Amino acid sequence: MAAAAAAATATAAAAPEWATKEPCLMGIDEAGRGPVLGPMVYGCMYCARSYHDTLATLSFADSKTLKEEQREELFESLKMNSSIGWEVDVICSKVLSAKMLKRTKINLNEISHNSAMGLVRKAIDSGVLLTEVYIDTVGDPEKYRVKLTEKFPGIKFVVAKKADSLYPVVSGASIVAKVTRDRALRNWVFDETAQNMHMNTGSGYPGDPNTIQWLKDHKHPVFGFPTLVRFSWGTCTAYFKNGVEVTW
């Protein structure tokens, strides 16, 4: 799965020609913030400001309100739409755990903020004439807006709760993020070689009985869990109590 993360953080490709000439607006949203399994994915979608009214007719909606088949269909349609640009940042479980457990800890909100700002920076560096960004909040909306504005003066930021249900450009970003995460999980290849490993993980959320059972089935007394698991989640703490003590 390292290849997916590497691809997501590769050098920005040149922006479409229209994006370098017309003022553009961007939406940003995430998928997979809460699960104990798999990557967290930040996605963005952008278009010319003059295209916004058309964008509102394309049936984009908060990805959580759509069936998987609908999300897949909409994702493929936006990929084929030459008037739309998009990008993702795939943050794998291993990276999330390392950042949240290292000596100088980086909490999930800061990781989220950095990912979103990274997408804005990548668009600007690729040549997108970005003038407005709409984003689903993480933490206090006004503090987040001020933080973004200080980082990118000259860009108008609108930070709101449930932005994915308020702004079509954020709805589109929500679909980009969700489909990317779903595909990453569907195509997951374990780094580990233990026998009897499977992907019947349930939803991946800590309260899901199928997810809890999967964690029980895949716990190792020395190595803990496969890299699919976010070791930094409190859900995992109980499983380490009976682990083998290792002296370094």
Automatic annotation (TrEMBL):
Manganese or magnesium. Binds 1 divalent metal ion per monomer in the absence of substrate. May bind a second metal ion after substrate binding. GO terms for biological process: DNA replication, removal of RNA primer; mismatch repair. One of its GO terms (cellular component) is ribonuclease H2 complex. It catalyses: Endonucleolytic cleavage to 5'-phosphomonoester. Keywords: Endonuclease, Hydrolase, Metal-binding, Nuclease. Residues 23-245 form the RNase H type-2 domain. The keyword Hydrolase applies. A divalent metal cation binds at residues 29-30, 136. SUPFAM superfamilies: Ribonuclease H-like. InterPro entries: RNase_H2_suA (IPR004649), RNase_HII/HIII (IPR001352), RNase_HII/HIII_dom (IPR024567), RNase_HII_hlx-loop-hlx_cap_dom (IPR023160), RNaseH-like_sf (IPR012337), RNaseH_sf (IPR036397). Its cofactor is Mn(2+); Mg(2+). Its EC number is 3.1.26.4. Belongs to the RNase HII family. Eukaryotic subfamily. Endonuclease that specifically degrades the RNA of RNA-DNA hybrids. This is Ribonuclease. It comes from Aegilops tauschii subsp. strangulata (Goatgrass).
